[in-house]
Amino acid sequence: MQSPLRLYNRPMTKQKAIKKDPKKAVHYVSNKDFTIAVAEYVVLLKASKENGTEKPRMSEYIGECIYKISTRLSTRPNFINYTYRDEMICDAIENCIQYIGNFNVEKSSNAFAYVTQICYYAFLRRIQKEKKQVYIKQKSTMESSITMDSFTTIDGHHDPMLTNTNVEWHQENMNHVEYAPRKSKRTIKSTKSNLETNFSDEAPNPIEE
């Protein structure tokens, strides 16, 4: 029988690292299967629209893939720290259900990227909405000191020493949010009305004729 010291003093053998084949990697959503399922659903949507029948129900597989894509995208470093991440996912799922019928198989064979893009812009819109609400709350809190002079006591007498400690604490400790409305990329073309074009200098005057 070997002594316990010899058993513990055995040289450690190095284990060979098992290399994973990237071609056999298993993704959480198969782009090939997902694209086929979306393409079949788009065909059913177009057929129901042409026949004037009720829209077909989306398959559970497509819904499950949309949920996985939106949830996985929300874990990215630029989205994971937001406290309203659940609202972002809900907005993304709603937009995907709304615009999944616009997927064109002839132009793209990547439904995964199409849904991911919808989710990404849905996240940006939710972040912009939440920033706007926080900005409004902070602005109202900062400007509440202007109306502090109108506070009176229970007896109806004005007390100049009356202060709101809650408002003062928020004014001193709040983290200001920088909010700026997003500018629209649409350009409005200036067109003359029909009245102006008919009675322009170049057009003949119907009264004189």
What does this protein look like?
- 48% of the residues lie in helices and 0% in strands.
- With 209 residues, the protein is mainly α.
- The chain has a domain of 121 residues.
- The radius of gyration is 32 Å and the shape is elongated.
- The N and C termini lie far apart (127 Å).
What secondary-structure arrangement, pairings included, does this model have?
Elements: H1 4-8, H2 31-51, H3 60-73, H4 85-99, H5 111-142, H6 165-173, H7 194-198
Helix pairs in contact: 3-4, 3-5, 4-5
Key terms for this structure?
209 residues
- As a whole number of angstroms, the C-alpha radius of gyration is 32 Å
Q: Please state the average pLDDT score.
A: 76
The helicity comes to 40-55%
Shape: elongated
Oligomer: single chain
Query: Which segments are poorly predicted (pLDDT under 50) over 5 or more consecutive residues?
Result: none
* Percent in strands: under 5%
Distance between the termini: 127 Å
Element string (H = helix, E = strand): HHHHHHH
Q: Total helix count?
A: 7
Secondary-structure-based class equals mainly alpha
Q: What's the number of extended β-strand segments? A: 0
Largest sheet: none
